[in-house]
Amino acid sequence: MATTGNASVATGTSSTTTTKRKPVFVKVEQLKPGTTGHTLTVKVVDANPVVPVTRKARPGTSMMSRPSQPSRIAECLLGDETGCILFTARNDQVDLMKPGETVILRNSRIDMYKGTMRLGVDKWGRIEATEPASFNVKEDNNLSLVEYELINVNDQ
């Protein structure tokens, strides 16, 4: 019987089961610029639609074959008992953002817009309506009013 360098090769299937990990809910005051993967329970304080933007196709692009639909965008003020932040709702998300509603944002991210923080949920995240929360939104701690400045550190 000849042996090779790989005498013991595992030929079975692994019977490990993957379990979902519990989401870690964060508060608004814990959000920092450039971070992702946040799960929050927040109340909608205000929702203001922004002028619809229609994308125009350039000749010779693949967008010529598809009719362009205007994007619906709304700037919403969301918050919890620790603070509030502006949220950019896009398309179907706009319908969920009604003042007074309580929503859960899963896998949300912080975008920077003109030096200020904005909360957003892209295609990898999810927004769910939930039962009304018992907390009052702390509107005097608006994280979107804090202006950040990008500093490049060069070693000289």
Automatic annotation (TrEMBL):
Domain Single-stranded DNA binding protein Ssb-like OB fold per the UniProt entry, residue ranges: 31-129
PANTHER family according to UniProt: OB DOMAIN-CONTAINING PROTEIN, OS05G0244600 PROTEIN
Name of this chain's protein: Single-stranded DNA binding protein Ssb-like OB fold domain-containing protein
InterPro entries referenced in this protein's UniProt entry, alphabetically: NA-bd_OB-fold (IPR012340), OB_Ssb-like (IPR048970)
